Input
Amino acid sequence: MNRVVLVGDIGSGKTYISKLFNYPIFNADEEVSKIYKVDLNCFKKLKKSMPFYFTNFPIKKEKLISAVMANDENIKKISRIIHPIVRKRLQIFINKNKKKKIVILDIPLFFENKLQKKNDIIIFVKSNKNEINSRLKKRINYNPKLLQKLRSLQYSTEIKKQNSNLIIKNDFKKSKVKKKVLEILKKIA
Output
């Protein structure tokens, strides 16, 4: 099984591009959202750690944002609770798809959490910073301070780029990106 990992800036189009590969996808952001909605044990740990913010299950996004924005220590507490759960779900995904030729991993903190394996095919999604910011501002829950905090948790795009095997330039034009994905699939499939 080839593990294809997409890395890049927040809003660079990793999730969109991951779908173009047409192989099973592990999307860490989606997994985290599910955990907050269905994992009572996670809620209990968060409530015990930060009772002021986590009072009701399922966990509301607004409560998470409040906790994250309050101080950096809360981000660390949340990470210590949520990351092991995501790792377990990743392992379940890998085991379930071990007979597939390729799996796609869309994990924002991939390098930061030291998830890379020797044979991973790491693709850096390169996008224009102004275009990214313009697109992010159109999102319903756009919050520049939260975005800044989330970016501060991640390695710089330069470090991600340096640690990647391939680059996809995402100019947000479907045909060009699709063509590049097909080229990559020809090389690795």
Q: What stands out?
A: The first strand starts at residue 2 and ends at 8. Residues 170 and 177 are 6 Å apart (CA to CA). The mean pLDDT is 94. The chain is about 55% helix and 15% strand.
